Amino acid sequence: MSTSQPDASQPSEARAGDDRATPDDLLHARTGTDVSPEDVVLAAGRDITPKNLEWARRKLAEEGPAALDKLLP
């Protein structure tokens, strides 16, 4: 029995173009604004607690805004 959808095991020409790496500058979400401790905590996948906020403040003090970039894919 035939289906209207293409075989998912075979990449289509349109899909083949999507199989390329994303440039590094497009992977980072920081928009040039200040990075808050809350941003760092959330990017690390942690809950916002006083202990985690203190950890994030120390990390930002040591690494600057790059701390967020290091946590994001």
From TrEMBL:
<feature type="compositionally biased region" description="Polar residues">
    <location>
        <begin position="1"/>
        <end position="12"/>
    </location>
</feature>
<protein>
    <submittedName>
        <fullName>Uncharacterized protein</fullName>
    </submittedName>
</protein>
<feature type="region of interest" description="Disordered">
    <location>
        <begin position="1"/>
        <end position="37"/>
    </location>
</feature>
<feature type="compositionally biased region" description="Basic and acidic residues">
    <location>
        <begin position="15"/>
        <end position="28"/>
    </location>
</feature>
